[in-house]
Structures are given as C-alpha cells and as structure tokens.
Amino acid sequence: LNTDWRDVVKSTLKISKEPSPRELQKFFTTTHIRCDNRRIHSLAPVRVLEQLQQLRCDESPVENLEPLKGLRKLQRLYAFDCDFVSLEPLREITSLKLLWISSTQVSDLEPVSGLVNLEELYCSETPVYDLFPLTKLENLEKISFYKTSVSSLAPLRQLQNLIELGFNHTGVSDLTPLEDLENLEYLRFSNTTIDSLAPLAGHINIRELSFNDTLISSLDPLSTLPELEEVSFAGTPVSSIEPLMELGYLEKIELSAGQVPAEELEKFLEMHPDCEVLMRK
C-alpha cells in the first residue's frame, strides 16, 4: 500500500499507528470507505472489501473502476472529479442506488442500463450526450446532467418516481416528455432554449422551478401548481407575474430588475408579504 492508502486504512479504523493484523482483519469487513481528495490513482486495495456499501473516491485522479467489479453490495459511489472514462466495471453491480460521476470523462451511460435499483444519478459536466440507457430504470428519483450535450428528455418519459431533475446549460428544448411525471418536485433548466411551461400544468407536487435565461414568456401554467414555493425566471421574456398571485406557499421568486410592471410587483408583495423577492441586476 502506498502512503495515501495507508492513511485511508488508518482513518477508516480510526487509528494513528500502523494497524495490527487484527485491525487489518477489521478493515477487510468495512462497509464505508473514504479515499476522496487524495493522490490515489488506483482503487486496487478496494477489490477485497466484499462488504463495501459506500465508497467516496471523488476529487482524486482515479484512472479506472475495474477493482469495483466484484463488489456486489456497493450501494453508493461518489466518484466525481476523477480521471476514469468508462462505467463498464459497474455493469453487474445491481445493488447500486447512488452514482455520482460529474466532472469525469464518461460519455456513455450504457453500462448502467441494467442497474434497476439506481435512485440517484449525477453526471453533470461530462461528455454524456444520450439518456437512452436510463429508459427502464424505474426507481430513479434524482437525475442531474448540467452542462452536457444531452438534447432530449424522451428517455425519461416512463420514470414515474422522478422527484428531482436538473439540466441547466444543455440542448434540451422541450418539456413534453415530463407531462405524465406527476411526482416531480424540483426542476431546474436554466440556460436552455425551452419556451413553454405547458407540459407542467397540473403537476401539483412541484415545489421549486428554476428557468433563468430561457425563452419562456408566460407563467400561466404555474397558476395550477398549488405547492410551488420557489420560482426563478430572471433573463426570460416573462413580463407578468399575475399567474403567481393566488399561490399560497410561495417563499421566494427571482426575476430581473424591471422585468414586470412595478404596480404588479407591489400587488404581489401585498399578497405575499413573507415571500423573498430577488432582483437580478
């Protein structure tokens, strides 16, 4: 073991000196490992940790995930900001519930297509361009793919358990595939060319919407969202907040200075005295 891995073993066992044989035995049965933010290029020592449920190797120059191949109890993998390019070694790890691979060079999600227990996937700032491998992952609840080349939400159409979705700075231009996803609560799609909120009308569970710097010009569909708490629409052609007037749970809205008539804003503040209004210059 190199120095970094020796430190990982010590911190896992909460000891300061070199581990005894008995302590090493305990390490082999550990369920959680943190080797994040270290100069670790290889995960080879993890290969023998058959009880491992959670691994954090984020912000480390990890070159491949091959040593994880046999870890059939792994549930959470935090591997953002690493150097690997392929998810192939994860193909058979159906126990995975959380996969965080943002800021890596992964371009193909195909190896996750059979990970039926996956609940959270974060792949922002990667060369990922297609969500098709997610089509049948019905347990997915949270997905984000900011700053990717993804241009279509169609593969998400059947994901009825989806609660949280974020895709700022992508080529997505249409929300229609989300029409029937009634469990959505948090949706963020700033800096896209989306121009209509119509597919969200009647999504009664939505709590937070963020679509700054988009082509959306009307908030009308939001009048049917009774649970809405936060909405951001700075830098859009929206010119009226009338559809927000009757929403009872609003806590925060963000818009551009001068975006709506002053008297309309005054009326809104009278009706929602506790709502925070952020004005973007």
Automatic annotation (TrEMBL):
The keyword Nucleotidyltransferase does not apply. SUPFAM superfamilies: L domain-like. InterPro entries: LRR_dom_sf, SDS22/Internalin_LRR. Keywords: Leucine-rich repeat, Repeat. PANTHER family: LEUCINE-RICH REPEAT AND IQ DOMAIN-CONTAINING PROTEIN 1-RELATED, LEUCINE-RICH REPEAT-CONTAINING PROTEIN 9. This is Leucine-rich repeat domain-containing protein.
